[in-house]
């Protein structure tokens, strides 16, 4: 007796001759009655929305990893500053421990939020550039990184804006060299083998 006997009456002898005996041992019904599902991908082709969807699927992990990395690095810097400051001040015991924890928390959250905001800028700009250009290539990475540097340093003057763009372009170049499979370094490495 099947749990779906009211909906799908199954005659096992008839089903074995039609489906070759492929009855599901777990549900006691023939899986051929279930209609075929649509493809699992929302945008399986290289359409305009496919490249934007790929970028948007990467945006949140980038922001989260940047925040967590910044928090960890800031916490380590805060630990160093806290130990140094409390040693110079001659603090001991509970007062020193509290001061060190305060340094760790303040520096960790400040650095984490800063890197999270920069990653948010980069992700939103990269998504917009990908949508506008209707291409997904390394130029989007360079445009987004340079624009992020410009926006992040926009209140500090023209020299800082140029420096922010240069840092963004440098980081985008390093990222592209490490992750892109069509760059010079990966081709040289595979040609040596």
Automatic annotation (TrEMBL):
Give the molecular function GO annotations.
protein transmembrane transporter activity
List keywords of the entry alphabetically.
Membrane, Transmembrane, Transmembrane helix
State if Transferase is listed as a keyword. Answer: no
A Gene Ontology biological process noted in the UniProt record is: protein import into mitochondrial matrix
Q: How does it sit in the membrane?
A: Multi-pass membrane protein
Which Pfam families does the record associate with it? Tim17
Which Gene Ontology cellular-component terms appear in the entry?
TIM23 mitochondrial import inner membrane translocase complex
> What InterPro entries does the database record attribute to this sequence?
Tim23-like (IPR045238)
Report the locations given in the UniProt record. Answer: Membrane
Q: Does the keyword Transmembrane apply?
A: yes
Record protein name field: Mitochondrial import inner membrane translocase subunit Tim23
Organism of derivation? Papilio machaon
């Amino acid at each position: 007796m099947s749990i779906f006997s009211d909906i799908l009456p199954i005659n096992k002898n008839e089903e074995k001759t039609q489906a070759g005996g492929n009855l599901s041992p777990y549900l006691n019904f023939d899986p051929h009655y279930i209609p075929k599902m649509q493809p699992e991908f929302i945008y399986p082709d290289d359409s305009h929305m496919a490249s934007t969807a790929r970028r948007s699927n990467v945006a949140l992990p980038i922001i989260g990893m940047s925040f967590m990395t910044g928090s960890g690095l800031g916490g380590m810097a805060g630990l160093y500053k806290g130990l140094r400051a409390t040693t110079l001040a001659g603090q001991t015991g509970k007062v020193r421990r509290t001061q060190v924890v305060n340094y760790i928390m303040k520096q960790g959250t400040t650095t984490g939020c800063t890197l999270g905001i920069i990653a948010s800028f980069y992700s939103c700009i990269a998504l917009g550039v990908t949508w506008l250009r209707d291409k997904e290539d390394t130029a989007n990475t360079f445009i987004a990184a340079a624009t992020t540097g410009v926006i992040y340093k926009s209140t500090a003057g023209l020299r800082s804006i140029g420096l922010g763009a240069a840092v963004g372009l440098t980081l985008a170049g390093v990222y592209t060299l490490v992750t892109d499979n069509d760059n010079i370094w990966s081709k040289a490495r595979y040609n040596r083998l």
